[in-house]
Design goal:
53% strand, mainly beta, Jelly Rolls
């Protein structure tokens, strides 16, 4: 019987040849067109004003009216409130009203107190004189979406926002081109679909601004916020497939390194990738079932070699790399990996990032593609 060699999954790092091919450069993946993208790590203060015009043209956040000073601490906006004190953080962008297509609002929250409540977690409005129904609230630590237009009391809820853990919230607005209105709203929390709201009865032809986090009972800390046109972004849990490198083939095989980017503020206790493969070699095809490979170390940089030149790739500020190496990959035929990065929070919750396929033809990198 012919013995079929399986790949050896190891945790050792190696010096890989060639530039790391980043997942963001997949030719099949359309890059989002950002309207606004703000990481608050470098911000020192929030604009305080009584007029939207102060920030509307450039796009940005503003604290309005009775809002006290909003500090930035440890790289996050801090909204402090007790007993439902009035806090009004708004996002304005003049281009927002002109969008006639799908778009996404996403944000990441740092740890908050147990039992967080917020009556106006995220409201969206067409103009200053209109106030949409409170579709998105937080009650007893759960994000709620009111999803029945005929019954304001009908709602679906996420699992509790993890106390002391990293959380992401994403709103995807679907646009009906024929009717010229926003027809649906999807809510995603920590990468999981929570529910959908039918907006077709609201005749919502455009959105001018968002009002966020009004009337809450404890601190809310926002790490970053972004808005983008087009299809929904993957809800950001601070875990990303960063890219892949490989060695030159030698003695009929080669090695590949899969790099994952982790946000340091997420305080993950474990990380790695889930890997499976489809192999066609010498006219025979076989499947290698999924294996979960965890790492024992995290890295601030990775090395790569081009000829005799060695370059160092530094992780972005506030991030670090996890890297998994596979050795003994056949250098003949076609090998297609399915790669899913994952991490485990301090509370034991496992979060996964976008999955990708990575293909090699005769030991040469042939493509990387996000899995829909």
């Amino acid at each position: 019987m012919k013995t079929k060699r399986l790949f050896m999954l190891t945790l050792a790092l190696l010096l890989c040849c060639g530039t790391l091919v980043p997942a963001a450069e997949s030719p099949e993946q359309e890059a989002p067109e950002y309207l606004f993208r703000e990481d608050f790590a470098q911000l020192t203060a929030i604009n305080m004003s009584t007029a939207k015009e102060d920030v509307a043209a450039a796009g940005g956040l503003v604290g309005l009216n009775a809002t006290p000073v909003i500090p930035v601490e440890d790289g996050a906006i801090v909204l402090r409130s007790a007993n439902n004190q009035f806090v009004d953080l708004q996002f304005w962008n003049t281009e927002l009203e002109t969008i006639t297509g799908d778009f996404t609002l996403s944000l990441r929250l740092l740890p908050s107190a147990a039992g967080l409540r917020c009556d106006h977690f995220i409201d969206f409005r067409k103009d200053t004189g209109s106030s949409m129904t409170q579709y998105i609230r937080v009650s007893v630590g759960r994000v709620q979406i009111f999803n029945d237009p005929a019954n304001a009391g009908a709602k679906v809820e996420s699992e509790p926002l993890p106390v002391g853990e990293y959380s992401s919230v994403e709103l995807f607005f679907g646009y009906d081109q024929d009717a010229g209105i926003y027809s649906s709203l999807e809510l995603w929390v920590n990468g999981v679909f929570v529910g959908e709201r039918d907006l077709s009865g609201d005749a919502l032809t455009g959105i001018s601004h968002f009002r966020m986090f009004r009337y809450h009972n404890s601190d809310i800390r926002i790490r970053d916020l972004c808005m983008a046109k087009g299809n929904r972004l993957l809800a950001d849990n601070g875990v990303h497939f960063y890219g892949v490198q490989e060695t030159a083939a030698e003695n009929g095989s080669f090695s590949a390194r899969f790099a994952v980017l982790l946000d340091r503020t997420a305080s993950y206790t474990a990380a790695g990738v889930r890997l499976s493969a489809e192999v066609t070699e010498n006219g025979e095809s076989r499947s290698i079932p999924q294996k979960t490979v965890s790492v024992s170390m995290l890295w601030e940089s990775l090395n790569a070699q081009e000829g005799t030149d060695i370059t160092r790739l530094e992780a972005p500020e506030g991030s670090c790399f996890a890297a998994v190496v596979l050795r003994g990959i056949p250098a003949g035929g076609t090998v297609t990996f399915t790669v899913t990065p994952y991490a485990v929070t301090a509370g034991g919750r496992t979060v996964e990032a976008q999955s990708y396929t990575v293909t090699y033809e005769n030991g040469v990198f042939a493509g990387l593609e996000a899995i829909a």
